[in-house]
Amino acid sequence: MSARPPPPPRPRLSLPPRSTGESLFSGTGDASPGPLTLASALFPSDADADAGGGGGGGASSGAGATSFTQLLIGSLSQPPPHQQQQQQERGRGGVARAGPALSVAPPAGAAVFTVPPGLSPSGFFDSPGLIFSPAMGGFGMSHQQALAQVTAQASHSPLRMFDHTEQTSFSAAATSSGALQNMSSAANVAEMSEMATTISNNEHAAFQSAEASHRYQVPAPVDKPADDGYNWRKYGQKVVKGSDCPRSYYKCTHPSCPVKKKVEHAEDGQISEIIYKGKHNHQRPPNKRAKDGSSLAAEQNEQSNDTASGLSGVRRDQEAVYGMSEQLSGLSDGDDKDDGESRPNEADDRESDCKRRNIQISSQKALTESKIIVQTTSEVDLLDDGYRWRKYGQKVVKGNPHPRFFLALLTVSCLLK
DNA sequence: AGCCTTTGACCAGCG
DNA sequence: TCGCTGGTCAAAGGC
């Protein structure tokens, strides 16, 4: 066991079929996709490339994806600014750059929110790292802002993914953060950090972690991947074709709650992907995680955030959180205005609109602040997002053949106008 | 005792 | 129509 011979299966990012990027900025786009989203959005062509396999392909993806880092490398050396446009053009064309590392999320437009393994969506949303407050009309801040914030902070502290901020919610799950490795303390941080995420919303939000598999050294029980504050009951498990990892099916135990989630495991038993489906129609159960210790704090933290942080005022808790799904799914038109102008394609927008209706869910939450480091196996056009990134660090992570790059956002105004 | 996991079987959608 | 595959059900067992 110590020596893991075979290359760990790369985590996959679920990307919505094409239009993702566009939709991100469009319709619900305003849902401030946040860096993660952006990242995912950046991998447009993936869909094109995989287009064929899209649907069922969810599971299999991993093929030659370029690693985020790799892309970064390449991208960094490229001129960033105009990329946005290029990207769009290319996107449609289907640059195949986005590697197969990304798996296509549910084709049918089911708004699925894929959370990086080990990550809990709620943590996601609650986590200060993400800010998506539907109530705020577009999530409190535009994705640019979020991005800026995130990246900016990230630059200060190169923690990985949802660094400490996440710890609150994630901590619960973080039973043992041995994984934390370099990170220091926060147990959960480790988990999150190791994962990369991708978000695809609206039509397909998919947050996923990229280097997950081997990296999610989630010591915690595999079956309980993410403690998102809700109670889940496993109702099935199945080996999905094209993937060696078994997929587990969970249902929210709350009566009448339609929410389900699928958790895919890697060969080594670690979680490689979590897909949430549906919206909780109830309040999150009271600290069920208290026993976890850290969770308690998280919970409190969360609450304080809800009320004090201002994220609110508006029912940030459930509705906010879930409201996000609405946002993501583009159900809330009002907020869309935010980015309305930045929308690249209204046509797509409309199209997505239709899709959105079909969306079953999406989980969501927002980054409230802080640092987020996006890790993806396929960075593709990460830098093509129209933002300017600056590399401020690089690190070779154990177990990961690819060096990890830390980027800071330099500007965020380009997309706005 | 209640809740959860496991697991084989069944069902439905799709090509 | 058939086979494949993903998703769900439900009985049995465990904690």
Layout of helices and strands:
Elements: E1 13-15, H1 20-25, H2 34-42, H3 45-50, H4 54-57, H5 68-76, H6 83-93, E2 102-104, E3 113-115, H7 121-126, H8 143-156, H9 163-173, H10 187-194, H11 212-215, E4 232-239, E5 246-252, E6 260-265, E7 271-277, H12 294-309, H13 316-329, H14 333-340, H15 346-358, E8 388-396, E9 403-411
Parallel strand pairs: 1-2
Antiparallel strand pairs: 3-7, 4-5, 5-6, 6-7, 8-9
Helix pairs in contact: 9-10, 9-12
This protein binds a DNA duplex (15 and 15 nucleotides) through residues 55-56, 59, 223, 231-238, 240-241, 247, 249, 251, 253, 260, 262.
Would you kindly provide a written description of the structure presented here, covering whatever features stand out?
The protein has 417 residues and is of the alpha+beta class. The chain has 15 helices and nine strands. A five-stranded antiparallel sheet has the order 3-7-6-5-4, with no helix packed on it. A two-stranded parallel sheet has the order 1-2. Strands 8-9 form a two-stranded antiparallel sheet. Strand 4 (232-239) and strand 5 form a beta hairpin. The model is unreliable at 1-112, 117-226, 288-387 and 411-417 (pLDDT under 50). The chain binds a DNA duplex (15 and 15 nucleotides) through strand 4 and strand 5.
Task: Please outline what is shown here.
The protein has 417 residues and is α+β, with helices and mostly antiparallel strands. It is built from 15 helices and nine strands.
